[in-house]
């Protein structure tokens, strides 16, 4: 039996940051990770970083096989750096193995390298086991050799000729955009009635037009019924929005219909930790489970699935253990997001339609990306910018930027919203020229 002050299950963003912090405070910390290929967690190994490396390679014209090699170099480098960061703390112990609860204080770890089992007891336990792709119950899907998840598709060194993507959300659109840019013929199948259902009509049309100009085909309101294996290709059988049967030939199928929590291996009932109806671990606004000394952080707790949210989960726990204990999930207003298309789509706050539906009197400003000098310099004149302002108060209610560097520029708008800055401040601020951020002068000048 080994005893630690803190046991962290999973090497994710929250877990690794918390491990380093607690060890630096002098706590004896154990971090358990089930795979040596996952040191540093999902983001750096199989998610944010490899996908953005591929997006960048596609944008710069690097051939697919070379892009995969560069992605592998980068993730390997980051994995090593994450491992070194953790092991540089003498108080932190890394256990390579799978953790499962024995009771609410004890966890059994099956060590990968020696095949031994060790029993670990801890005063505080933090679950950070993440999420994995959800596989819908489509006949033939699990059996097919040509069906991939985001993880396994990025392991392929040969570009699929015809890629069919099931799901038109974050992963579906990012992969559609980059694989089309690498030269694949891409079709996206979305079960919802409309692609980008949250976006205002004008914004959705602009994004769709850009994606279609790359040769991507979208079918909405479809139901995928079967994947039929074939010798040279698989056939995706679907019912389209009109109820007709369509058959699409695919050299690869990507499933991207959402991600589900990693909980099965944990034996949660032994600890008495409860889950919600979707299987995510139930937590309060301080991320405590129903067992007070057990917390759940990151994707596994059912919050928004972003690395920066997992990092903020760490901040909430840190504040309880070493701060004023005031920080909660309720403090998270105006969290921005970016879909890394080319150009990217970044958003914060309310869309026009959402603001009106909530009863706000609004003033709306829109501007084409082609009007931004920096976008012309970059030869990326495609896109649309939009801001929603509350009539009378001048409060920024929301902003959507579909343009080069949108994921950078949105951070300025987000910070302004958080600080309660009126739109005129962004309108009249002095920005670097020529930069994409200076488009905020013109965008807010149109309010
Ligand atoms: C393709 C893709 C692209 C994405 N792009 C972005 C992006 O650009 N920006 C963004 O913010 N977010 C992005 N995300 C989401 C982001 O990756 C996740 O929200 C984030 O990585 C979640 O991290 P986490 O802290 O929950 O834990 P994770 O990083 O998922 O770590 C969980 C770890 O726990 C380990 N584990 C699980 N069970 C056990 C067990 N029983 N014992 C021991 N170890 C265990 C796993 O092996 C894993 O290493 C993307 C996701 C995907 C799939
Ligand atoms: N840039 C980023 O920040 C980034 C990038 C990738 C992923 N992520 C995170 O990872 C999460 C998971 O991504 P995702 O794309 O898997 O999920 P998602 O929830 O973003 O999108 C899933 C899509 O699949 C559709 N769908 C569901 N079932 C379907 C079916 N049977 N047939 C066809 N379509 C179906 C849904 O209507 C939805 O549009 C995201 O929600 C996001 O939080 C973030």
TrEMBL record:
<feature type="domain" description="Pyridine nucleotide-disulphide oxidoreductase dimerisation">
    <location>
        <begin position="335"/>
        <end position="442"/>
    </location>
</feature>
<feature type="domain" description="FAD/NAD(P)-binding">
    <location>
        <begin position="5"/>
        <end position="309"/>
    </location>
</feature>
<protein>
    <submittedName>
        <fullName>Pyridine nucleotide-disulfide oxidoreductase</fullName>
    </submittedName>
</protein>
<feature type="disulfide bond" description="Redox-active">
    <location>
        <begin position="43"/>
        <end position="48"/>
    </location>
</feature>
<feature type="binding site">
    <location>
        <position position="299"/>
    </location>
    <ligand>
        <name>FAD</name>
    </ligand>
</feature>
<dbReference type="Pfam" id="PF02852">
    <property type="entry name" value="Pyr_redox_dim"/>
</dbReference>
<keyword id="KW-0285">Flavoprotein</keyword>
<keyword id="KW-0274">FAD</keyword>
<feature type="binding site">
    <location>
        <position position="258"/>
    </location>
    <ligand>
        <name>NAD(+)</name>
    </ligand>
</feature>
<dbReference type="InterPro" id="IPR001100">
    <property type="entry name" value="Pyr_nuc-diS_OxRdtase"/>
</dbReference>
<dbReference type="GO" id="GO:0003955">
    <property type="term" value="F:NAD(P)H dehydrogenase (quinone) activity"/>
</dbReference>
<dbReference type="GO" id="GO:0050660">
    <property type="term" value="F:flavin adenine dinucleotide binding"/>
</dbReference>
<keyword id="KW-0560">Oxidoreductase</keyword>
<feature type="binding site">
    <location>
        <position position="52"/>
    </location>
    <ligand>
        <name>FAD</name>
    </ligand>
</feature>
<dbReference type="InterPro" id="IPR023753">
    <property type="entry name" value="FAD/NAD-binding_dom"/>
</dbReference>
<feature type="binding site">
    <location>
        <begin position="167"/>
        <end position="174"/>
    </location>
    <ligand>
        <name>NAD(+)</name>
    </ligand>
</feature>
<dbReference type="InterPro" id="IPR004099">
    <property type="entry name" value="Pyr_nucl-diS_OxRdtase_dimer"/>
</dbReference>
<feature type="binding site">
    <location>
        <position position="190"/>
    </location>
    <ligand>
        <name>NAD(+)</name>
    </ligand>
</feature>
<dbReference type="Pfam" id="PF07992">
    <property type="entry name" value="Pyr_redox_2"/>
</dbReference>
<feature type="active site" description="Proton acceptor">
    <location>
        <position position="433"/>
    </location>
</feature>
<keyword id="KW-0520">NAD</keyword>
<comment type="similarity">
    <text>Belongs to the class-I pyridine nucleotide-disulfide oxidoreductase family.</text>
</comment>
<keyword id="KW-0547">Nucleotide-binding</keyword>
<dbReference type="InterPro" id="IPR036188">
    <property type="entry name" value="FAD/NAD-bd_sf"/>
</dbReference>
<dbReference type="InterPro" id="IPR016156">
    <property type="entry name" value="FAD/NAD-linked_Rdtase_dimer_sf"/>
</dbReference>
């Amino acid at each position: 039996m080994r005893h630690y002050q803190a046991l962290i299950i999973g090497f994710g963003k929250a877990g690794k940051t918390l491990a380093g912090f607690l060890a630096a405070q002098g706590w004896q910390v154990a971090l358990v990770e089930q795979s040596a290929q996952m040191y540093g967690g999902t983001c750096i190994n199989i998610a944010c970083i490899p996908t953005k490396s591929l997006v960048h390679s596609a944008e710069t014209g690097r051939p697919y096989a070379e892009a995969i090699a560069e992605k592998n170099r980068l993730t390997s480098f980051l994995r090593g750096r994450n491992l070194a960061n953790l092991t540089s703390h003498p108080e932190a112990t890394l256990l390579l193995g799978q953790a499962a609860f024995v009771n609410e204080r004890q966890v059994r770890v099956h060590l990968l390298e020696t095949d031994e089992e060790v029993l670990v007891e801890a005063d505080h336990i933090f679950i950070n086991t993440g999420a994995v792709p959800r596989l819908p119950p489509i006949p033939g899907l699990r059996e097919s050799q040509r069906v991939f998840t985001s993880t396994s598709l990025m392991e392929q060194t040969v570009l699929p000729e015809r890629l069919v993507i099931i799901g038109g959300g974050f992963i579906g659109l990012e992969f559609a955009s980059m694989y089309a840019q690498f030269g694949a013929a891409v079709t996206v199948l979305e079960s919802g009635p409309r692609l980008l259902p949250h976006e205002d009509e004008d914004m959705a049309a602009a994004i769709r037009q850009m994606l279609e100009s790359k040769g991507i085909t979208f079918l909405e309101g479809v139901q995928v019924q079967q994947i039929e294996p074939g010798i040279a290709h698989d056939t995706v059988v679907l019912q389209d929005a009109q109820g007709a049967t369509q058959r699409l030939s695919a050299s690869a199928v990507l499933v991207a219909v959402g991600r589900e929590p990693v909980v099965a291996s944990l034996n949660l009932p032994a600890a008495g930790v409860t889950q919600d109806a979707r299987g995510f671990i139930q937590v309060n606004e301080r991320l405590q489970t129903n067992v007070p000394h057990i917390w759940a952080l990151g994707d596994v707790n059912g919050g928004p699935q972003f690395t920066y949210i997992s990092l903020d989960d760490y901040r909430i726990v840190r504040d309880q253990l070493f701060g004023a204990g005031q920080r909660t999930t309720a403090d998270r207003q105006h969290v921005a997001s970016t879909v890394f298309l080319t150009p990217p789509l970044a958003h914060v706050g309310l869309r026009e339609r959402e603001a009106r539906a909530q009863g706000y009197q609004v003033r709306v400003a829109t501007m084409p990306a082609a009007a931004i000098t920096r976008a012309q310099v970059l030869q990326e004149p495609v896109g649309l910018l939009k801001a929603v302002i509350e009539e009378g108060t001048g409060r920024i209610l929301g902003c959507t930027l579909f343009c080069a560097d949108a994921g950078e520029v949105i951070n300025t708008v987000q910070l302004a919203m958080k600080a309660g800055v009126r739109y005129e401040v962004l309108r009249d601020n002095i920005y670097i020229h020529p930069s994409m951020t200076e488009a905020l002068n013109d965008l807010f000048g149109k309010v």
